[in-house]
Amino acid sequence: MFPERTQLVLDLVGVFFFAVTGALLAARKGFDIVASTLLAGLTGLGGGVVRDVIINVRPAVFEHPVYLVPVVLGVAVVYLYYPHVPRFRRTLLLVDAAGLGLFCVTGTVKALAADVPAVSAVLLGVTSAVGGGLLRDVVAREVPSLFRYDDIYALPAVVGATVTALLWRLDALSVWTGVGASVLTFALRALAVRYGWRAPLAYRRQPPDG
Amino acid sequence: MFPERTQLVLDLVGVFFFAVTGALLAARKGFDIVASTLLAGLTGLGGGVVRDVIINVRPAVFEHPVYLVPVVLGVAVVYLYYPHVPRFRRTLLLVDAAGLGLFCVTGTVKALAADVPAVSAVLLGVTSAVGGGLLRDVVAREVPSLFRYDDIYALPAVVGATVTALLWRLDALSVWTGVGASVLTFALRALAVRYGWRAPLAYRRQPPDG
Amino acid sequence: MFPERTQLVLDLVGVFFFAVTGALLAARKGFDIVASTLLAGLTGLGGGVVRDVIINVRPAVFEHPVYLVPVVLGVAVVYLYYPHVPRFRRTLLLVDAAGLGLFCVTGTVKALAADVPAVSAVLLGVTSAVGGGLLRDVVAREVPSLFRYDDIYALPAVVGATVTALLWRLDALSVWTGVGASVLTFALRALAVRYGWRAPLAYRRQPPDG
């Protein structure tokens, strides 16, 4: 649906962004560099592996070892510059938001290319986008950022994946509109962080005698 | 093995029951409604997805988006009626037991239909039944209810899956005997809760000089 | 690549070693014997299942229920002898190291046999070796031993898997050289425990004005 090279580039950039967030968490937790690599790989590649296993495609990283390059780069960046990074918490959230924006679009596209119905493709796009971070947090014993009440995280990915599937239905999905959906997702997530946008709680508050 | 429509109905009802338990946990933890939906989906669909990925079948939810309906319904029920639900802790345990009973039978049937040996089909039936709840608890950072020592949880599912595989071996598996195995599982789990049935510990207590 | 029977024996021995570590954790946490069986199975079989799902092979345990035998044996050993085992913490670490050594070699061999590129086969070998223990720790809410800073754990498996892939590239992979790679991995891990070998941290310490 995208030219192969475009898909690859977008993928690798997304892997790099998420790998950085995994390596940063490893650094914060005092893990060693091997654990940092594992956590960066799980974050950068985990969501895509889950998606590919579900649609029964051999996960890209196990066909094309080039996917390991952005993981190693992410670990190296954190290894070299860690003490400077935490000063830029907002930068980090933006890096993560960039990964989210890229993966919800490329994940949906890959699912559509595997002949999954559009609604399920949206679900798989969101899985690609939030899966790696969820695995990262679960394995490192953090409260999944997905579930924190501070600001919406999954919803921008749902929007991005839905827009991608709609563009595809309307035969309007191209590299440019795809990148547009990524930027939209990124922007929604960035605004959610900036203004503390929240979703309603899981239950409607009611008076006890309601 | 079951008529397709019967299998679908049993599945959807099981998904609904487990989705409710996921949404309830989200409500208790103060997650928002998006997280509630994710957790309900993981609980209701996770065990089946793991089973299908193992037997190399595309998971039902990614072929038939109708599987998302009971998830949304479960989230909605909790959203609307949450404050009333915790008063009925026993009701909740029974809802979960109903999901357990349905999934250990339908999961075993699906595995047998994929030509898995009977012993492995039992294992996959149990995986379907307890997998979603395990994922729910791991992701939400709870002690897996599977491991709590209060009352047996997995064992009724093992019994239900074994009975299902035996019925199949004896060519006696029908909708009615299948539902019977479900009800048996449900009853065993309900009695375990009611009377605090426990399994032996993981080790035999011995005197220190034993 | 290995004769089938050899592969099976090495596999079953590895499953037994890891199953023992899972059952021991269950005993320490006061879980019941059902949870012990589940945790032993997850530890012994989880890494291989993840590998097989990724390379799109039906996991061995779901074809050959004989894989459940070492799990049951591991649970039985811990059930019968638990109070004696903790005195031998070093013995336990060695048992785990033996599993690590076996699985990083057999996992790499299975991935190579599925036509995965060599670099990815190394990754899958490491996944087989450390995956079960990671699942065990995550599900039982322990800090993954993989991430503890005490002594290197994954690195010996990386070495063993890399040596296996190199032997295969040089057409020198046989049962004997394979067992040699296993022993090397085991020895590296055992020495790491004995002498507290550590990897560098995830970040280079820098002066604040660095």
Automatic annotation (TrEMBL), chains A, B, C:
It is a multi-pass membrane protein. The chain crosses the membrane at residues 6-26, 33-54, 66-82, 94-113, 119-140, 152-170, 176-197. It is found in: Cell membrane. Its main location: membrane. It holds the Pfam family Gly_transporter. Residues 9-81, 94-168 form the Glycine transporter domain. Keywords: Cell membrane, Membrane, Transmembrane, Transmembrane helix. InterPro entries: Gly_transporter. It comes from the Bacteria. GO terms for cellular component: plasma membrane. Belongs to the UPF0126 family. PANTHER family: INNER MEMBRANE PROTEIN, UPF0126 INNER MEMBRANE PROTEIN YADS-RELATED. This is Trimeric intracellular cation channel family protein. It comes from Jiangella ureilytica.
